[in-house]
Amino acid sequence: MYILGLSCFYHDSSAALLRDGKIVAAAEEERFTRKKHDSSFPLSAINYCLSSQGITINDIAYIGFYEKPFLKFERLLSQYLETFPKGLWSFVSTLPIWFSQKLRLIKIVRKKLKYKGSVLFVPHHLAHAASAFLISPFQKAAILTIDGVGEWSTTTYGIGEENEIKLLKHLAFPHSLGLLYSAITAYLGFRVNNCEYKVMGLSAYGESDKDKNQYYKKLKNTIDIKADGSFCLDMDYFSYCFAQKMPSKKLCQLLGLPIRKASEELTQSHKDIAAALQTITEEVIMKIINHLHKEVACENLVLAGGVALNSVCNGKILKNAPFKNIWIQPNASDGGTSIGAISYIYNSLLGNARNYQMEDAFLGPSFSNEEIKTFLDKEKISYQFLGDSELVEIGAKLIFENKIIGWFQGRMEWGPRALGNRSILANPLNPEMKDILNSRIKHRESFRPFAPAVCEESVSTYFECDSPLPEAARYMLLVYPIKEAWRSDLPAVTHFDGTGRLQAVNKDRNPLFYRLIEEFKALSGFSVILNTSFNTNNEPIVCTPSEAWNCAKRAGLNYLAIGNFLIKLDEK
Question: Comparing C-alpha atoms, which of 545, 558, 543 is closest to residue 374?
Fold first, then answer.
């Protein structure tokens, strides 16, 4: 049985395919259209999923969608009626897309895919919950989902056992931790639903002591947090209920600064505001999690929703809560709900026993050496063809010599993190490498950190981390302190506050990348490589050999390792 999952018409459209209970393919539409956070109907991603299995749409038993559009439209009607007449223009401006797309999903599916079967709608936070629990390693777990908003819910918690999910409680719009984070993201001059992770990175430069951070005290005026983690926002400070600008004038007055323009310098005040926001976010999440443990007698916790991508908070959960184990959906935001929808249909609605556990995120397209060679020969690109052993030996040597390499191998990653298959790799020991990558290669803000990819067995050598190490560490979803003894040796991957967003590389899940790190250790003494996504600023991660080649040239990389082909580019 094949079930196709869809997420679209908001942000990060995606498609995923399940075969007899197992996820066999998944990808976001942006990787094919090259439009970052593409929200359109994921036709290219669907075509990839079908072609990966050699099937057609006629082989699909069910299509699952990640929310209930009419319920969401009901919330929007209620929202704008409550704020009438302030929200009239904003409401009118949203109507065309609702009537042309969001309320016509079944018709669009029938027309674009020629599909005649059943389309099933899974509530948004239930899709998040299913994406976290049903493919986790746990047979029983507490479930927490936190995002901006689904239909009505902004936060839910519950329990999963075997193939059943029960969501016990929820917080409703407009009270949303995700929207609070997005509102401050907008206030700081970054794009909403795009740059929240930048604010998380920026927070390391702010005052971490909440007693000394004046903005912590000010931001606490906007939110009333209860002992169980439930909260209410003071909506006088936010305008997202009636306008497309999220911070209100009152918020600007409270914080004492106008909304920052993207071109303006980031001041220490902006950094302190980011730190205050991060502190409040962590306080809310920890209160919810500790309360959830009291409600659900279980050692395991799973997370999903866009806020579950807050890796700084994630790295503190097991140290500050009674849970012993944690699992986080690698594509925790809306893109990951296509997997949640199909897993819920197969396991919960149809009652099939779970027979799949996500052990890696390599669910996207791959390209054979024959396909890569055809492209390189057509473009008249000079290359060396190397065996695996030669490739990792030479690759490690080049990285040790401070060459910057595009590393394009195997299946593309699922989710926002490049995990060694669509990556740019560099020397973590070079104190200048962070600035080189940010300014010359990635063309992005200087405060942005880079991730250390570490052989799994060596993680505890370098990091003050949870033991046993959660699988979430394989997906760059946990930030831990780097041990002080190593920080000066690893300057390119040590963030301003002494932490690193860890990627633990498993020998069995990505053997070639693991061997590359081992070869680098033989040369350098360190089982660590700097890993960042294979893209430049404001473009999606590369998907195809053509995109890898063009990005490598545009970014000014020194070498490109694509399949078993090594290409030398112009030195800079």
Answer: 545
Question: Structure tokens of 432?
Answer: 């200048």
Instruction: Please write the tens of the pLDDT for every residue from 53-104.
Output: 999 999 999 999 999 999 998 998 888 778 877 777 777 888 888 888 889 9
> Is residue 358 in some structural domain?
no
Q: Are residues 311 and 408 in the same domain?
A: no
Q: Are residues 306 and 443 in the same domain?
A: no
Cis peptide before 481 (omega within 30 of 0): no
Residues 412, 487 within the same domain: yes
Alpha carbon distances (Å) from 496 to 83, 211, 285: 43, 20, 24
Give the pLDDT confidence of 433-458 residue by residue, as tens digits.
999 999 999 999 999 999 999 999 99
pLDDT of 572 above 60: no
Sequence-ordered strand ranges (E) for 397-459: 405-408, 422-426, 451-455
Specify whether 36 is located in the same domain as 97: yes
Cα separation, 160 vs 114, whole angstroms = 35
Same domain, 387 and 299: no
Residues 487 and 557 in one domain: yes
The CATH code of the domain that includes 130 is: 3.30.420.40
DSSP, collapsed to helix, strand or coil, labels residue 41 as: coil
Q: Is residue 188 part of a domain?
A: yes
Count the residues in the chain: 572
139 touches 86 (CB < 8 A): no
Q: What is the distance between the alpha carbons of residues 232 and 176, in angstroms, rounded to a whole number?
A: 8
**CATH of residue 417:** 3.90.870.20
Asked if 345 and 411 sit in the same domain, the reply is: no
Query: How many independent structural domains does the chain possess?
Result: 3
User: CA-to-CA distance for 493 and 498, rounded, in angstroms?
Assistant: 9
Bridge pairing between strands 22-28 and 60-65: unpaired
Cβ atoms within 10 Å, residue 23? 21
3 state DSSP class of 211: coil
Asked if 27 contacts 355 with a C-beta cutoff of 8 angstroms, the reply is: no
Whether residue 42 lies inside any domain: the answer is yes
Residue 360 within any structural domain of the chain = no
Provide the 3-class DSSP secondary structure of residue 567.
strand
What does 292-337 look like in DSSP terms, one character per residue? Answer: HHHHS--SEEEEESGGGG-HHHHTTHHHHSS-SEEEE-TT-SGGGH
Domain range for 277 is 177-328
Angstrom distance (rounded) from CA 231 to CA 307: 16
Looking at residue 213, its amino acid is N
315 Cβ partners below 8 Å, 6+ apart?
Answer: 465, 478, 479, 480, 499
Other CB atoms within 10 Å distance of the CB of residue 132: 30
Question: What sign does the CA torsion over 365, 371, 376, 379 have?
Answer: negative
Residues 561 and 532 in one domain: yes
Q: Which two tokens stand for residue 45?
A: 């991603």
Q: Which residue has the tokens 């299995």?
A: 53
For 216-255, write each residue's pLDDT tens digit. Answer: 999 999 999 999 999 999 999 999 988 878 999 999 999 9
Q: Determine what percent of the chain is predicted with pLDDT higher than 70.
A: 100
Task: Say how far apart CA 261 and CA 288 lie, in whole Å.
Answer: 34
Query: Would you say 313 and 281 are in contact if contact means Cβ atoms under 8 Å apart?
Result: yes
Q: How many CB atoms lie within 10 A of CB 174?
A: 17
